[in-house]
Amino acid sequence: MTMRTVLLGCLLLLTMIGCAPVALDDEERGSTSSNQFFVNASRRDPTALEASRVGRVNPGCAAFFLENDVNKTFLMTARHCFDFDTEAWCATDGEIVQENGTRGQCTRVVVEDDSHDLVVFEADMKHAAKGSTTLRLASYAPRARTRLTMIGYPADADPDSARLGAITTTENCWTLGSRIPSLYSDPRLNDMTLRHNCSTYGGNSGGPMYVEGTRDVVGLPYTYIPDDYTRREANDETTAARLALTWDFVNVYFDVLTAEGITIVETGAAAAEDQAAG
Fold it and tell me: Do residues 11 and 59 make contact, with C-beta atoms less than 8 angstroms apart?
């Protein structure tokens, strides 16, 4: 057994038991079911540019770098990665690690609350504040059939394309339908959501889902079902996955975020939003 195999095995275990103490799996509200793998979606190793936009936290979740005009390092991730206690994580661990070996520490939580899964924090790591290695928070909800790109560290053992916690770009997927409430009964997960067909697994948590061809983050992964690798149909809303919309969080905390210098995109890039999913 090689050291790489051992490390991947450890990472898989940590991701499945450590990164998301609250499992975003098959909880249901009414008859709504959210599944994870889809016939249309494809996954691959990211480009260097894509990899530069994210880091690994806690240790099997993702966080992504936010564009700002104050030359600071801000990131967004999901609160469930820290059992909804980002302050404790920031004070006791708080490490962010990128694929190129760059490391940093959380220095403060910028904004979070008790009803959204999204959280913004500041870190002391060296990273560009603007430009192509950063992403921008969208205050708009994308139209149905808006094409998406997702980056994270899915720890699945899918027989066809196991990622085992490796950094991964998921593409050839898109939004479905209109805004809907959270499917979770947990009041800490009360985000407004949108259906999508991007294949999702534990380890994608906290990572960005942005409009293809732009840097506009419109959501974060919100649901998956462990070890179910059945491919769902692309446009069946009854078996679609969910994302937590940035639209919801950003509009509540618009003044706080802009006061910090964080870039907010208030209207979508028309060309990107109008792309029809094939």
Answer: yes
Contact 120, 257 (CB under 8 A): yes
Structural domains in the chain, sorted by start: 23-49+141-247 (2.40.10.10)
Q: CA 197, 198, 203, 209 torsion: positive or negative? A: negative
Residue 275 has a pLDDT of 40
Q: Which amino acid is at 198?
A: C
Picking from 275, 84, 57, 83, the residue whose alpha carbon sits closest to that of residue 171 is: 275
Distance from the Cα of residue 238 to its chain's centroid? 22
Beta strands per DSSP E along the chain? 37-38, 42-44, 54-57, 61-66, 73-78, 95-97, 103-111, 118-123, 136-138, 147-152, 168-180, 193-196, 209-211, 216-221, 231-232, 241-245, 264-265
Per-residue pLDDT of 191-237, as tens digits, reads 999 999 999 999 999 999 999 999 999 999 987 677 789 999 999 99
Span 86-145, pLDDT tens digits: 999 999 999 999 999 999 999 999 999 999 999 999 999 999 999 999 999 999 999 999
**What does each C-alpha distance from 209 to 59, 159, 190, 202 come to in angstroms?**
19, 24, 19, 15
